[in-house]
Specification:
Length: about 450
């Protein structure tokens, strides 16, 4: 990877983003860290199977500013189709760095719910943003200490892959969704953010910040979509803050076009008796690196981590997960399923970490991969790091082709081989979706899967 200084990643670029003094200073510090750290190589364990040395940062530029549209009918077809089939309480649409359309009913504000873009929240809710921004996904220095924004106390992370790309997003994020749900409030329908990109050779750096206060309940859907774009990049960060007794369901659907490189870290910070249910769906981009982490720092907290992905052609999907148990009597359950076709490459690295004193931990990790081609390859590395003696932890991983007995059963009943494989793939992924109660979201994901399966 070339190391020349792109103006898009310079101090001048940070200065143009503006912001309050504390934010500007944090951005500058994060940018310095970005330029100090080396790009990850395959010599680093966390990046052992994903080579980013050929990525070209020399000519990439920020996505251009976009004007707002006056009606939902002017939105991209992919977004319009999604909205027609989903019941949401409110939504934002981002095109590159800008909100081009928003539909946020007054009923939400009447409950005290804040749902806006992060750039606007810096003006209208400055104290809340300063309190929580960078508190869960900070820029990280090499010795695993954090650069904290003034007034914040970032949660400690044992993740060995913290580094350059987190610092890049921390320095250059342009916008994103901000959600705050007050104590005891339940938002019945999901909130949503739709991110689109339409410029080859550009990059977008968005950040999602969701704060669920004590005993609150909310569901959030994060979706990313684009046509095929040569040399485009998406650098994302998702911070999920769950106070005591809070319930958050977070759904991420990544469907970037071919040619896009996607690198994102998602991390949840769970207080006492908080519950986080997450679903990560990866279908798009040529190279996708997604890091999903749950930090269970409160006794009685619970994290369900679901994931499904389907890679074809020359796509490369890398998923890194962390279930970090820092408190006793916490529970986590991970189920990820992958399908690889053609010459696609899949990587899964999952860690269950139990801290000293986190007794009565109950943690499970399961990853399954289905190979549709002899040229497809999967590397799966489930791991345990246990520092307490009264725990129940298990992990497992399997990789294999389509079950020949099942295939024979369908073919013996007149089903052509190609159709039989599609049926088996759909059924293979279904048990993940069966654990998602949002039927409109499930139907949409099933449609995306059907389109992907149809292309195989």
């Amino acid at each position: 990877m070339t190391q020349t200084l792109n103006k898009a990643f310079s101090g001048e670029a940070v200065a143009q983003l503006g912001g309050t003094p504390w934010l500007a200073e944090y951005r500058r510090t994060a940018l310095e860290l970005f330029h100090t750290l080396n790009f990850p190589t395959t010599a680093v364990e966390a990046w052992k199977y994903t080579d980013v040395s050929e990525l070209d940062f020399d000519s990439v530029r920020p996505a251009a500013r976009k004007a707002a549209v006056s009606s939902a009918g002017e939105l991209p077809q992919s977004v319009r189709t999604r909205l027609q089939n989903t019941d949401v309480a409110g939504y934002l649409v981002f095109d590159g760095p800008d909100v081009v359309f928003r539909d946020v009913p007054q009923e939400l504000a009447a409950k005290g719910v804040i749902f806006t873009d992060l750039r606007s929240a810096l003006d209208s809710h400055a104290e809340l943003v300063q309190q929580y921004l960078y508190s869960v996904v900070p820029a990280q220095v090499p010795d695993d200490t954090t650069i904290a924004a003034p007034g914040t106390t970032p949660s400690k992370s044992p993740d060995p892959s913290e580094g350059k790309f987190s610092a890049l997003n921390a320095a250059l994020w342009t916008n994103g969704a901000f959600v705050y749900v007050p104590r005891g409030v339940e938002v019945e329908l999901p909130l949503g953010a739709f991110q689109v990109l339409d410029e080859a050779g550009s990059f977008t750096a968005l950040r999602t910040l969701i704060v669920a206060d004590v005993n609150s309940t909310v569901t959030f859907i994060d979706e990313q979509d684009s046509p095929d774009l040569v040399g485009a990049f998406a650098f994302g960060a998702v911070e999920l803050v769950l106070k005591d007794g809070a319930n958050l369901r977070y759904v991420s659907v990544q469907n970037w076009g071919s040619g896009v490189t996607h690198i994102q870290r998602q991390r949840g910070d769970l207080a006492c008796d908080a519950t986080l249910n997450s679903l990560v769906v990866t279908m798009g981009a040529t190279l996708s690196r997604s890091e999903m982490q749950s930090y269970l720092r409160g006794p009685g907290s619970s994290s369900e981590m679901l994931g499904l992905n389907f890679a074809a052609a020359h796509q490369h999907f890398d998923h890194y997960t962390l279930q970090h148990h820092a408190a006793p009597h916490a529970h986590s359950d991970l189920l990820y399923k992958s399908v690889l076709a053609d010459e696609a490459r899949g990587v899964f690295s999952g860690m269950i970490k139990v801290d000293l004193g986190a007794q009565k931990t109950d943690a499970y990790q399961k990853h399954r991969t289905l190979l549709l081609s002899s040229e497809a390859r999967n590397d799966s590395i489930p791991q345990l790091e246990i520092n307490a003696n009264d725990v129940r932890c298990s992990h497992g991983s399997t990789t294999g082709p389509v079950d020949q007995e099942q295939l024979f059963y369908l073919r013996s009943r007149g089903v052509p081989r190609t159709l039989a494989e599609k049926i088996l793939v759909t059924a293979y992924l279904e048990d993940v979706l069966a654990r998602v109660p949002l039927q409109s979201v499930v139907k949409y994901i099933e449609a995306v899967i059907a389109e992907k399966v149809g292309a195989v």
